[in-house]
Every structure is written in C-alpha cells, then in structure tokens.
Amino acid sequence: MSETIFWVILFLPLTAFVLAGISALNQNLQRQIPEWDPSYPRSWKPIADLFCGPRLASTPLIIALAVAFLLAVINLIDSIGLRGLPLDIAPHLLFSAGDLKVNLGVRIDGLTSVMLVVVTGVSLLVQVYSTGYMDGDHGYRRYFAFMALFTTSMLGLVLADNLLMLFAFWELVGLTSYLLIGYWFHRPAAAAAAKKAFLVTRLGDLGMLAALILIYSRTGTMDIAAINALADHGAEAGMFALNGLMIGQTAMTLFGLGLIAGAVGKSAQFPLHIWLPDAMEGPTPVSALVHSATMVAAGVYLLARFFPVIHASSTASDMIAWIGAGTALGAAILALVQVDIKRVLAYSTISQLAYMMFAIGVGGYAAAVFHLMTHAFFKAMLFLGSGSVNHSTNTFDMRKMGGLRFAMPITFVTFVIGTLALAGIFPLSGFWSKDEILVEAWQNNKGVFVLGFLAAGLTAAYMVRAVYMTFFGEYKGGEEVAPGEHGNEDPSHPHESPRSMTIPLIILAVFAVLSGLVTLGSEVQTWVYGALPNAEHHTEHLPFLHWHWGVAISSTVFALIAGGIAYRFMRERDRIRSWGVGGIWPIPEMQKFATELFYLDALGEKVLARRVFYSWIAQASSWFDANVVDGVVNQAWRRGVSVSNTARFVQNGWVQAGTLSIGLGGVIIWVAVVLF
Amino acid sequence: MDPGFPVLSLLIFLPLLGALLIALLPGKHTPTEWLVQNAPGNAVDYPKWLALGISAGTLIIALVMFIIFDRSVSGFQFVDEFDWISAEAVGFNVKYAFGVDGLSMPLVFLTALLTVVAVLVSWRIDLRTKEYFAWLLVLETSVLGVFTSLDLIFFFLFWELELVPMFLLISIWGSGNRNYSALKFVLYTVFGSAFMLVGFLALGVAADTFDIREIRQDVLAAAFLPAPAIFAFILIAFAIKLPVVPLHTWLPDAHTDAPTAVSVMLAGVLLKMGGYGILRLLFTMMPEVGADADLALAIIGAVSIVYGAIVTIRQTDLKRLIAYSSVSHMGFVLLGVAALGTTGMSGAAMQLVTHGLITGMLFVMVGLVYDRTHTREISEMKGLMHHIPLLGIGMVFAGLAGLGLPALAGFVAEITIFLGAFASQTAPVSVALLGVLLAAAYILWALQRTFFGPRDEKWSHLPDANHWSEFTIIGALMALIVLLGVYPSIVMDLLEMGVEPIVTELEAVVSAGAGGG
User: Which of B310, B411, B416 sits opposite A621 (nearest CB)?
Assistant: First the structure.
C-alpha cells in the first residue's frame, strides 16, 4: 500500500471535523442575528443556512469513516500477506531547531493495521448509533465535530512512527476526551469530571514526556523502530548499543517506567484510575468509543508498541505486571457494588485493560493486542446497550430499571451476548483472548495468574448482577426527564431504540461472537508479532494457539460458578437482606469500603489535590507572593517616600535657610581645608 | 536583503508619524442631538480609523519584510545606518543603526500584528480617543525600535521611550488601582534601566562604540567594571521586564489595571523585550559570562515556571490569573537560553513569539468578556458559555493553547525547550515539567468556573461577539496559533538562523575555556 492511503485515512475524519466545526460555529452565529436589525447583511444568510444543517455535521463523518474503514481493511489484508512486517516509509521533516529534527511519518505494521481496523470500525458504528442517540440534542453539531477530531487524533496516535508525534496525538486524544466528557457542560458534574480526567491523565503524561525527553537526550532519536531495535538488541555491560545509538540500562529502565506512567494514566490503571468512572458523565456513545474501546486502550497500545523496551528491564515489566494484576482484581471488586450501569461498565473497562497490561508485563504481547481487539467490540457494544436502555428510561441507575428484556429485546439479547463475551464463556470472543492472557500469566508469573483468575470469576459475577438488575425482575419505572434536558417523554413505557441504534448493536454483537475465532487462523500471531524488531525470532517457535486445558476449563468453570452465585443472590436478595446483610458483601464495613471505592478517590481528590496542594502549598505560596515578595517592594517604595519626605525639610525654599546652609557649608569646607 | 530604500526606518517611525497626525487632526466629531436622531450610529471617529490605517500599514510593511527577508544569509538585513554622534576624543560614538535578523524579524512582525489587534480591541473606547490612539502608536514605535536597534544608546532610548505611553495608558484609561499600578510599573522598570545604563556605558566606553555588532567579549578587559558585574547589571533590567521570580510583582498589578489593549501589548510584546535583550545583547556580547551563568538562569527559569504556576492557581481575578500565568510561561525562555545550544535557544525565541500570540489572545478574550460582564471576579461568573458561546470558544481555544496543547503554537516552543535543555540542565528541566501539569490545572479550572456550569440568568442579556473587529481579532489569532502549531518552520527557521551565530560564539568560548583551563 502506498503511503498516501494512510494520510487519506487520517485526513478523512479531519475534513469531517472541519465541516462539522463550520456547522457548529454557524449555529452560534445564526443565533445572534438580531431579527429586527435591518442593517444586518442578509445577503449571505442563505449561504449560511446551507452550512447550518445538523446533518452536515454527522453525514460527512460517517462517510469518511466508512471509506477509512474500507481502506483499513484492505490494508489489513495486505499486512497479513506481508506477515505483519513494517512497510518501508520514510518520514517527512516537519521542523528542525539545531540538532532537533521533528518528523511526521507513518509506521505501518501488523499492530498498526489491527488498530486501524478497530478504530475506524468501532468509530463508524458508534457514529451511526450517535445519529440516533444524540438526535435532537442542542449540541448535535458540536458533538460530531468533537467525535471527528477524536477519531483523527486516535488514528494519528496509532499511525505515528516517532514518539514525539505519538505524544502529540496522545495529548490531542486527551483533549477530545476532555471536550466530550464535558460535552454537557451545563452539568457541574460533567465539567468537573472533564477537568479531572484531563489532569489525572496529564499527571501520567508527565512521565511519558519525561521519557520522551530522556530518550531523545540520550540517543538523539525519537524513532520508534530505532528505539525498539536498540532495546531488543539487549544490553552488554549495562549499555544498549546499536547502529551508533547508545543508552545505559538505568536510562532504559527509566524510559520504560515513564512510558508506563503515561499508559497507567491513559488506561486508567491504579493509582490513576480515578478519572474513568467520573468520565461516564459524557454521552454514552462517547463512553463506548473513547472510554472503553479506543482511547483508554491507547495505553495498552503504547506499551505494546514499545514492548521490547518494557522487556529490556525486569523492573519495568514486573511493575506493569503487578499494577495490571492488582488493578484487574480491585476494579472487578468495585464493579460489583456499583448501582449505575455505566459505572459497572467503567470499572469493568479498568479491569479488562488491566488484563492487557499484565499480559504485556508477563510477555503476552499478542495476547494483549488480541484482547484489546475483542474487548473493543464487546465493551463498545455493552456501553451502547446501556445507552439504549437509557434512551428509553432516562436513567443509568439500575435500581430504577428491571424487566426490560421484553420491552427491549434487541438490546437485551445483544447485552447478554456482550456479557457472555466479557465473562469469557466458550466460544465467544472474550473466552479466547482472556484465556490466552491467563495462559501467558500461568507460564510466567503464578502470582499474577492468581489475581487474574480471581478477577475472571468476579467479572462473571458483576455482569450477571448488572444484567439481572437491568433486564430481569419488575420494571421500576425509570426516571422523568430532567427539566432542560432531552430524553424519552414517557419513561413508564420503555420501548426499543430506533434502528440507527440497534443495527450497530447487532453488528457489534456479531463481532463479539466471532472475532475470537481469528486465533484459530494460524497467521494471527505471526502477523501481530511482525511489528516487533527481529520478528522471525519471536515467531519461530510460536505455538499458534496457546492452548492449556487446565486454564481453559478451570477459568470457565470458575466464571460459571461465580455467575451462578451472583444470579442466585440477585433472585434471593430480598430474603438475604432480611438476614441483615446490606449488600453483596457479608460485612457492612466491607460493603462501605467498596462503595467508597477503597477511599482512593477521596484520597486523590479531596486530600491530595484540594487539601495538601490547594489549601496548603498553593495558599502558602500566594501568601508569600503577596506579602513577602511584593511586600519588600512596597516597603522599599514606602521607605523611599518617607526618606524623601524627611529630606524635603531641607529643600524648603526659604532664603534664610538657604543662606544658612551656604554659610555652614563654607565653614565646614574651611575647617576641612585647615585641618587636613 | 537591501531594498535600496530605508524601509526599516519607515517601519519604525510610521507609527510615530501617525501619532503626530492623530494629535494634530480633529478628534471625534461629537454628534449633535439632531444628528443622533436622524443618523443612527456614531459619527466617524477619526482617531481610531487613522490608528487602524497606520497600524495596518505598518503591519503590511512588516509582512512584506517578512516575506522578502532573505532566509539564505545570516546576519542583519534591511540595515539603515549613519553616524549620529562621533566624539572620537572621548570615545563616545553613537550610530543611528537599525537592522533585523532572524531573531528580530518574527518579533517585529508580532509587534506590528499585536498593535493592530490592540487598536481593534479598543474599538469601543470613547474616553479621550485622540490621545489614546496616539499613545498606542508611540508605544508601537518604541517597541519596534527596541527590536531593531543595533546601537546600545538607541536601544536604551527606545527602551525608556516605551514607559511614557505605558504610564499614561494605564493611569488614564485603566481601571481599579490604576495610578498605583502605573507608577509601580514605571518605577520598577526605571530601577532596572538605571543598572542597564551603567552596563551599557561600561561596554560602550571600553569598546569605543555602542554598535551591538562590534562589541564582543574581548573589549571587556578594558571596562571600568568586571564582566560579571556588567552582565548582572544588564540582566537585572531584562529580568524585571521578562519578568522572573522574584522581580515579577509589578506585572499582575499592571496587567490587571491596564486597559485591554495595553495588556495585550504588555504581555504580547513588551515582556518579549526582556527575552530578546538577553539573547541579543547579553549572550551576543558576553558569551563567556553567559556560559558561566547557565545554571543560575536555568534555576531561576524553573522556579519561575513552577512557583508562577502555583501562585496562578490561587488567583481570583481572571485577568490577574492570566497575568500570573505569563510569569510561569516566561520562565521557559530562561530555561531555553540556559541550554546554551541552538535547539534550546531557538525554543526560547519561539516561546517569545508563541507566548505573544497566545497570551495576547487570552487578554483579548478576557477583555471582551469584561466589556460585557463588567467584572473579572471568577466567583461572580458562571455558565457564560450559554450566553456568549463564540467568545467562549475563543477563550477555550486560547486556554488550550496556553496549556501547551499539541498542534497549537505553545507546544512547539515548550517541547523544543525541554528537548534542548534537558541534556545540560537535567534537574531544572525535570522540575519545570511540573509546570505542564500546573498550567493545565489553572486554565481548566478557571474555564470550568467561568464558562461552564449551569445557565445563570444574570448574564442572559450579554451580547456575544458581534462586531467585525472582534471576529477579525479572534479569527486571525486563532489562525496564526494553529499555523505555528502545525507548521512551525516558517518562524522556527528564522529564529534558528538568528540564534545560530550566538551559539557558534558560545561554543567557541566554551571550548576555548575548556582548552585553556
């Protein structure tokens, strides 16, 4: 494939962004035209109207993504033919400053090809869904402008061939996430969540920025292929050296840790996971696309991209393995006590991303990428399903739902398919990819395996609980539309969502069932491994399918048992409550500990950000600035004035005083001359 | 580039001539009651149209110069020079000498551009418009003079000339505690200038010339002050202007009480005089002292970045908040300079340009909002986005540019500085990275409190951006910020050309020093 194709893929959604942006701006401009002002130039109003239709925002984006998706699929087929090896494409110089050369370039290999298909495919379906979900919303045009910008940035992120370009798009993705979480900016919670998301992820990005600066200042390059080759080459006497590039083991470890910091922020891993549940304040299709399927997976992508770097240092790989394993279990526990369906899915996302993270840590490169792909399909579908439920009930609170399986059959069936895929039930996609990860963990790190295994059981339990509360039992009536908001006027009679929403659900359900089967095709791993330097070496002895009967059967049985217990519990929960048990945890304190999110959120936001930083450090600094730094200046000024005031006494303009001074002066000089 | 025509002198003095013209022509025609009834709309307000025409003319000249500037040769172009004072006997030789090189060309263009912005943003001023616009143009001439002077005496003259219009503009057309702020600004600057003058005289007398192109390290032996003292004296003036912590407290006061246009000029170009001076004078003329001062400069820079950002977070006045953010952003300039390499210094110069555009735009937006709300207290604003969405978009855009978002101009400068400075100034750069996070915190939090949140009916009467002057400013600044963000080469190449001779000399003295010692 020629390079142009990839720039076309990138520029298609960018064009849609420009059109949607014009449309959104026009909406605001038109609002302003005072109807009574005769001097207003009317001549261009018809032209302005032409650019104001809401469909100008959504239709070009959908067309652009459809074309981009086709191109991505063609590229994927090409890439499989090439065994995933990178295409030879020279970068273009964007600007230089001294020795610094900043390039723009695309890197196309097996990993990029998979990501392109996932991003364009899921984005396309989500945009189609959005035309239904967001229909009638005041900010429809703005919504699609942001979505287009997001997709552009995400594509740029996966296409980038150097770390600086990757970082730039990484930040832009963060920006669009901010804009989309805060899309309903009139809700204080949404505005706060948007800011929190940006700041928490940027805290991680500091690590990534430091890594970028470090690798550049040590090796003078930011080229991904060169860095990976260097890391893959291995260290001799504590030095990595290849093709004239050199870096010490410590610097390489720090570089890896910096990348991990970035990934932990973006992929919402402990301890920077606290932003993702709040991010559910954004519109649901945003949660589906940005906060589950693509953007949050960018952290996993980053570490997969720099897989040789992570494994060039055991500190880095162990760290990400344990962070991942701990987060997988912890987030699954939290998912079990949420009453908001989107928050259940948010914690589930954290937990599943954590699987990919520890997979990278224990060396399961292909398994992580594979799970990233299957997860993108089924988790996007689950989120869209929750949006579909919300579309008719106006709420995400599962306590106000129930019994929706008859009113919303398509949503129900697809949601159950997603649940089974997520829980890893044979033969749905989640089974294959999760099994791969657990096998890798079993072979390389038993402790990580145990945590991952427990999390697998909890996954089944929290999903069964969510399905039960939403679709089984009696309908609790939903929620009235809040004043000033847009929603279903008659929530007491829930209905199935429009076709623009159900068709994407059905398509994603097909992927959720079938996408796991690609592992059976023997080329998959070869083709993903093609992205690594020295690909032949990695794939030489590769078992095409890690199959481990023990892991497969035990994890499936465990999931089934956990799901069964959860189902029993939900059915009998009124009776169980009468025993005095508050929730799913037998001891009330444990329940509270979990509903308070292990107090991590409070620690981060209330204690560290508000109290320690804002009330202590910042307050002390600003007091110091106003009273000491500026105080000295003002004091000096005041002293100067008072000295002048005193001295002014001499310059009083009296002739007598003047004469007296002259006389005294003469005497002093005379005395001086005489004495010396 | 020699156009065979003193185009640079024309550029510098056109605004001054325009100011004279405005002063001599009649001012705003006061409409009689009869006119008001029969001809709605204001009568023609000559001064502002004249000011717009003259500043636009200056901008066009600057643009033409920017385009025909020869990017293949380094050194000064468009040079106009002749002897001004030749007192050979006492060694007091002053030249009328002006010229631009890669370093000053973008700053000249920025000055011309922001003056047009300043005129447009003052479109609704109706107090003593004749004097107001005349002083604004005098300010332009003085800043252009500073950026193009090739003689220390002329540099000093223009440096001081700028104080006159600034003092009057703040104290007459300002708000709040404007007399205090104007006086503080002037006294603080003059305090620095006194040191600078001593430094200049020491240099000039020792070298028998005040020509910036000729004074070099080797003349310092003959000076009546030791070289580090001269360096420090001149640095004090530039550090106050930039400003750096702890010499910064004049800035928030001056900004807060100045009229919008003056804030734009102050943040956009006047602060740049400090950074420009450090590169053009200190590091060009005294590279050896500069090379020794690198760690001190880097530390001051890092402290300014982080401390400035922390103090910014606590501000409750929107304009003051932006003003403090300038302290933080100008710290990057010192950090880049301290790198002592082409990359870092180009980044520092780039930061001068991008900060001029971005903070200029932030002050424009705050000013336009203030014109409507008549308050700048963050706690009194809420949900403004519902009522003034176009201004809101401009504000959010400028804010995002301010926090260093990629694809916008600020990112290019900051990343170049970081990449250039890390190898030699590892610890200060590592500390300064925190500024990236803090900048996001104060900007996003300010946006959240002022523009987002529920609709507040108190503001429902506010008109959104609705005048052509507002659309022009916002559109032009946005376009330039994006242009420099996605294609920085158009300016970066020039700046690189400008700093390269400085770095060459620096490297020469550093290697000579290393070889000798």
Answer: B310
State how far the Cα of A265 lies from the Cα of A258, in Å rounded to an integer. 11
| B249 neighbors A625 (Cβ within 8 angstroms) | yes
Determine which of A255, A625, A627, A637 to mutate to test the interface with B (most B C-beta atoms within 10 Å). Answer: A625
* Chain A CA closest to residue B426: A214
Q: Which of B406, B419, B430 sits opposite A100 (nearest CB)?
A: B419
pLDDT (0 to 100) of residue A82: 79
| Residues near B6 by beta carbon (within 8 Å), at least 6 away in sequence | B80
Question: Between β-strands B77-87 and B92-100, what pairing exists: parallel, antiparallel or unpaired?
Answer: antiparallel
* ipTM of the complex, rounded to two decimals: 0.91
Q: Which residue among A28, A94, A622 sits closest to B389, beta carbon to beta carbon?
A: A28
**Neighbouring C-beta atoms of residue A196, cutoff 10 Å:** 24
> What is the C-alpha to C-alpha distance for residues A337 and A330, in angstroms, rounded to an integer?
12
Q: Is A35 helix (H, G, I), strand (E, B) or coil?
A: coil
Choose the closest CB to A98 out of B346, B385, B464.
Answer: B346
Number of domains in chain B: 1
User: Mutual orientation of helices A409-423 and A365-393 as an angle, nearest 10°?
Assistant: 150
* Whether pLDDT at A277 is above 60: yes
Residue B366 lies in a domain: yes
Residue B42 three-state SS:
coil
Lowest mean pLDDT among A25-29, A467-471, A618-622, B370-374: A25-29
| pLDDT for the residue A554 | 86
Q: Is the CB of B390 inside 8 Å of chain A's CB atoms?
A: yes
Q: Looking at the structure, tell me whether residues A528 and A659 fall in a common domain.
A: no
A198 to chain B: closest CA residue = B440
Count of the separate structural domains present in chain A: 2
In a domain? residue A476: yes
Q: Find the CB nearest B452 among A191, A618, A629.
A: A191
Among B452, B474, B491, B495, pick the best mutation site for testing chain A contact (most A Cβ within 10 A): B452
Continuous H helices in A480-572: 499-514, 523-529, 535-539, 549-571
Cα A258 from Cα A217, distance rounded (Å)? 14
Q: Return residues 350-369 of B near A (CB < 8 Å).
A: 350
Spatial distance between the Cα atoms of A575 and A564, rounded to a whole number of angstroms: 17
Q: What is the distance between the terminal CA atoms of chain B, rounded to a whole angstrom?
A: 41
Let me know whether A352 and A242 are in one domain.
yes
**What is the CA angle A542-A543-A547, rounded to 5?**
150
Q: CA distances (Å), A398 to each of A451, A465, A475, A653, B220, in order? A: 28, 10, 10, 89, 79
**pLDDT value at residue B35:** 46
Query: Under an 8 A CB cutoff, do B415 and A96 touch?
Result: no
Enumerate the residues of chain A whose CB falls inside 8 A of the CB of residue B313: 614, 618
pLDDT grade for B34, boundaries at 50, 70 and 90:
very low
Chain A residue with minimum CA distance to B249? A630
pTM equals 0.91
Full residue range of the structural domain in which residue B497 is found: 293-511
Contact B184/A at CB under 8 A:
yes
Choose the mutation target among B240, B337, B350, B415 for the interface with A, i.e. most A CBs under 10 Å.
B415
Query: Tell me: the pLDDT tens digits for B57-77?
Result: 999 999 999 999 988 888 899
Strand ranges for A233-386 from DSSP E: 235-236, 239-242, 245-248
Q: What tokens were used for B209?
A: 């010339």
The confidence score (pLDDT) of residue B467 equals: 81
Condensed to tens digits (0 to 9), the pLDDT of residues A283-318 reads 999 998 988 888 999 999 999 999 999 988 889 999
Which range marks the domain in which residue A610 is found?
Answer: 603-643+652-675
